Amino acid sequence: MNKWQHVPLNDYEDNLKKMIKHCVDHGVSKEKIIFISPPPVDEALWLIKMKEMGLPYDTSDRKLKVTEKYAEVCKKVANTAGCKYIDLWSALMNTADLKKYLSDGLHLNDTGSLLLADCITPVIQELTSHLPMQLPAWDVFDL
């Protein structure tokens, strides 16, 4: 476990709740807050990246089972508070190969970002569908 970047699970949960409170205190309703679960980690691919960075580890400092717990807490906090929730964890775990979606075992690559966009687009459309169109749509704009 990377002691410099690790946030204990209880602190993570408290931080998510603080984010909700901050947004609500500044006029954002809970129904408009969107939480996105952390993605899973590909431990083998991340270990390769760690070695490329010169880190002295024989095993990945990020664990799939640990990341799953963070995704579960994110979902619990979002659902309890009445916020929107994007289950990126499950979307990626339901794919055949994480390597296709993660650049280094930890971060999304272009394909992973497109998958996230596919997951979040319906939620954003739901939250904004009542808003009036201020400018012409991009596909009918003529210069």
Automatic annotation (TrEMBL):
Top-level taxon in the UniProt lineage: Eukaryota
EC identifiers of the protein: 3.1.1.47
SGNH hydrolase-type esterase domain sequence ranges: 5-112
Catalytic activity field: 1-O-hexadecyl-2-acetyl-sn-glycero-3-phosphocholine + H2O = 1-O-hexadecyl-sn-glycero-3-phosphocholine + acetate + H(+); a 1-O-alkyl-2-acetyl-sn-glycero-3-phosphocholine + H2O = a 1-O-alkyl-sn-glycero-3-phosphocholine + acetate + H(+); 1-O-hexadecyl-2-acetyl-sn-glycero-3-phosphate + H2O = 1-O-hexadecyl-sn-glycero-3-phosphate + acetate + H(+)
UniProt-listed Gene3D superfamilies: SGNH hydrolase
Example of a GO MF term: 1-alkyl-2-acetylglycerophosphocholine esterase activity
Protein name listed in UniProt: 1-alkyl-2-acetylglycerophosphocholine esterase
The species this protein was found in: Ciona intestinalis
